Amino acid sequence: MVVQPKPLWPLRPFLLPLVVFLLMISSNIASSGVQSFPEKKFLSLHKFQGKQKSGNNGSTSRSSCLSQKSRWESGATILEMKHRDSCTGKPLNWNKKQQNRLIFDNSRYKLIQSRLENNISRESTDALDIQIPLQSGVRLQTLNYIVTVELGGRQMTVIVDTGSDLTWVQCQPCQQCYNQQDPVFNPSVSPSYQSVLCNTSTCQSLQFATGKVGVCGTSPPNCKYVVNYGDGSYTRGDLGMENLMLGTIPVSKFIFGCGRSNEGLFGGASGLMGLGRSDISLVTQTSAIFGGFFSYCLPLTDADSSGSLVLGGNSSVYRNTTTISYTRMIPNPQLPTFYFVNLTGISVGGVGLQSPSFGNGGVLIDSGTVITRLPPSIYKALKAEFLKQFSGIPSAPPFMILDTCFNLTGYEVVDIPTIRLEFEGNAELAVDVTGIFYFVKPDASQVCLALASLAYEDEIGIIGNYQQRNQRVIYDTKESKLGFAAEACSFD
Ligand SMILES: *[C@@H]1O[C@H](CO)[C@@H](O)[C@H](O)[C@H]1NC(C)=O
Ligand SMILES: *[C@@H]1O[C@H](CO)[C@@H](O)[C@H](O)[C@H]1NC(C)=O
Ligand SMILES: *[C@@H]1O[C@H](CO)[C@@H](O)[C@H](O)[C@H]1NC(C)=O
Ligand SMILES: *[C@@H]1O[C@H](CO)[C@@H](O)[C@H](O)[C@H]1NC(C)=O
Ligand SMILES: *[C@@H]1O[C@H](CO)[C@@H](O)[C@H](O)[C@H]1NC(C)=O
Ligand SMILES: *[C@@H]1O[C@H](CO)[C@@H](O)[C@H](O)[C@H]1NC(C)=O
Ligand SMILES: *[C@@H]1O[C@H](CO)[C@@H](O)[C@H](O)[C@H]1NC(C)=O
User: Which of 31, 95, 144, 484 has its CA 20 to 30 A from that of 320?
Assistant: First the structure.
């Protein structure tokens, strides 16, 4: 069906040249009974006096943000999840922050693509790779979401990652540890800590989970691991077992990495929680308790926003506002520990895009990549349709990988086309209004469509975390399916 874009809503100029605050007024025209074609969502650009909310009052936000709450409900453990920007304490220039985030996002994207077989011929052509500045202390910027668990009776705030498997924390004695907020875990004072020996199958399973074999230490012959995150960040240490508490649920003999040498700024967190697909991931290790289910709702970056990581599959604990639609997980032998789904279509403002690349292989769904990357033919179609429907708005210069930008200074409310990602089995992810635009400038003079193109048609598409905000994303590893539903993220 051919549809005409609806004119923009009355737009009033705004006076205070300050910071933009996103506010959703209404996100679903169809359900409120108003004219529904083409589908649009309201985005309110609210400027307010004062500094941006996140990170300018370090002392208070830091102490509260590194101790997330948890609860037990209907057979599930619910961990409060926050964006770690709400924890960084130091105010960072908005522009710089947005720029850094995309630089590191690009390095994660490169890392994922480099694991593919067909990457060799392209290495020399991609001179940009080498220019990615990897300053010590600003690594792993893409892994953004944190939760608090208890290991060996100690609280640990860790970064959540669906793209890796080994859970680890920094351990004493440290050869090299970055600064963290909680005290560093000391296995020698924990009676329940046990080291894993290198002649065990657990140690051997590291090969699959981390790409590196576990090696034998000398007296005792314990299992030594290494995980490289590709952007220069790494953790090295001993594989150990310890009692883990997820909310109120104990997990005994949980296998984790006791990291003696760790490089990267993990946002002051104690370590990382690996939610990938291998045997060593937290999901697999706790599958007797939680049935191989986990789900999350990723909140916005400001200090007031909370989301949740739910371990366990009883859907009565979700706060979804639409029904859950499921799609099958697609196996990818080249990246076996990542989660892949079959993207079969995209619609913009209700208009379906055409591309031969839909349904070809899988796209990766990642909690760690920020910006969704689509095959060039799909991205081109999306951009064209978006521009057609979002017409009459002044454009702004491109920003790094984001090539479709607007100057929204002077607009109070804009009416933006909806974006729906469709998956095999009629599943759908309706991107929330907060996941469509990336605010490069806080005064809204440069606001970009938060999706980008892959360099090549046959690279792996990635559904990034920006487009997963305010969604319940459900991973059912037993039945190998992934579910989506809209949800306004909150912990309570
Ligand atoms: C931080 O916030 C607290 C309470 O909201 C306030 O008492 C304190 O003065 C603020 N600190 C700074 C540096 O703004
Ligand atoms: C799911 O939660 C509901 C509501 O608390 C409860 O009645 C039901 O028994 C639970 N189902 C399972 C399988 O635990
Ligand atoms: C892909 O490229 C990387 C270097 O960027 C190389 O180390 C790796 O072996 C290549 N992958 C394959 C499967 O050949
Ligand atoms: C592993 O080595 C330890 C001692 O180094 C030994 O006691 C144990 O039996 C070995 N286990 C296996 C499975 O070989
Ligand atoms: C949440 O999802 C469940 C499962 O699909 C569904 O039964 C329920 O109606 C949904 N809640 C709302 C408010 O749509
Ligand atoms: C994706 O789904 C489409 C439509 O159901 C199907 O034709 C295609 O073969 C699927 N692709 C993969 C890689 O499974
Ligand atoms: C954005 O638009 C406003 C008018 O609405 C204009 O004053 C300003 O110069 C523009 N900014 C940029 C960066 O183009």
Answer: 144
204 lines ligand 4 (CB under 6 A): no
Q: Is 399 in the pocket of ligand 7 (CB under 6 A)?
A: no
Active site residue 492: no
Q: Does 82-117+132-308 match 19-50+318-486 at the fold level?
A: yes
The residue to mutate among 109, 119, 228, having the most atoms of ligand 3 within 8 angstroms of its beta carbon, is 119
Bridge partner residues of 82 (DSSP): 146
The three-point CA angle 441-490-303 to 5° equals 40
Report the topology of domain 82-117+132-308. Cathepsin D, subunit A; domain 1 (2.40.70)
Tens of pLDDT, residue by residue over 62-114, are 444 567 888 888 889 999 988 776 665 555 677 777 777 787 777 778 777 77
Between CA 267 and CA 55 the distance in angstroms is 12
Identify the active-site residue in 85, 105, 161, 182. 161
Q: Name beta bridge partners: 320.
A: 487
Contacts 24+ apart (CB under 8 A), 93-101: 94/19, 94/52, 94/441, 94/442, 95/440, 95/441, 95/442, 98/399, 98/438, 98/439, 98/440, 99/399, 99/400, 100/138, 100/141, 101/141, 101/142, 101/370
Q: Per residue in 295-326, pLDDT tens?
A: 999 988 776 788 999 999 888 999 999 999 99
- Report the predicted TM-score, pTM, of the whole model to 2 decimal places: 0.83
Instruction: Yes or no: say if 206 and 212 are a contact pair by the CB < 8 Å rule.
Output: yes
Give residue limits of the domains in the chain. Answer: 19-50+318-486, 82-117+132-308
Number of helical (H) and strand (E) elements in the chain, helices listed first? 7, 32
Q: Name the burial class of residue 119, with classes exposed (0-12), middle (13-18) and buried (19+) by CB atoms within 10 angstroms of its CB.
A: middle
- Cα of 321 to ligand 5 centre, how many Å? 7
Other Cβ atoms closer than 10 A to 118: 11
Among the listed residues 85, 231, 238, 366, the single catalytic one is: 366
The SS3 assignment for 383 reads: helix
How far apart are the C-alpha atoms of 466 and 444, rounded to whole Å?
A: 18
Q: Give the nearest ligand 4 atom to 200 CA.
A: 13
CA of 107 to the centre of ligand 6 (A): 29
Query: 70 with 306: CB under 8 angstroms?
Result: no
**Residue having the nearest C-alpha atom to atom 9 of ligand 2:** 74
Is 19-50+318-486 a CATH 2.40.70.10 domain? Answer: yes
* Cα 4 to Cα 37, 345, 380, 414, 424, distances in angstroms: 8, 21, 20, 17, 28
